[in-house]
Amino acid sequence: MIGALRFRTVSLYGAAALLLSIPVVHSIQPARAGVNDAACSGTSQVTYSPGLTETERPTTISGDYAYTGCSSPDKTLTSGKGHFEYQHVRSYHTNVSGAPGRVVITWSNSKTSTFDYTKSVTESNGAATVHLQGTITAGEFAGDNAVQDVTEPDRDPRNCTTSAGETATSGTLKLQISKP
What we know:
Layout: H1 2-21, E1 36-52, E2 57-71, E3 80-90, E4 100-107, E5 112-124, E6 127-139, E7 145-152, E8 166-178
C-alpha cells in the first residue's frame, strides 16, 4: 500500500513538473474585422471642363475632398484632403456607375492613403448620391476596406441645357476605413 501511495505521489510530482516545463506561447490577437481605422465627414467639390451638357464629349473631371472631424485610433489623424482627376466622355445624363477610380488622401499626420474604388451613382429629385467602395491599396491603412458616400443636393438638370453646361457640383461626404 505504501508503495502504491509513493507511486501516486511521484506520478503527481512528475505530471506537475511536465506541465511546468511546457513553454507558454502568448497568442497575438489579430486585428478585429470591421474596426474603424478612420471615420470622417467633410465636403466635396468637383469641376467639369468643359461643362456637362446633353451632348457627350471628352471632359476633364477633377475634384477635391476635404475630410474633417475624423476619428481614429491614431490621435494625430484629425483631418485630410484628397484629389482626383481623370478624362471621360460624358454628358449630364451619362451614368458612370461601375467606373473605377483612385483618390490619394493626405492626412493631417502627413501620411497618405491610396483609395482605389468602384463608383455607383443614384439620382433622385435632382440630388445625386455617389458611392465609392474599395480598398486602401497603399500607405496608411493599406489592406483596409473603404467606403465613401457623397451627397450632391444642388444638381439642377436645367444647367445641362445651357451652352456652358454644369461646370461644378458640391456636396457633403462621409468616409469610413475599416479592417476587413
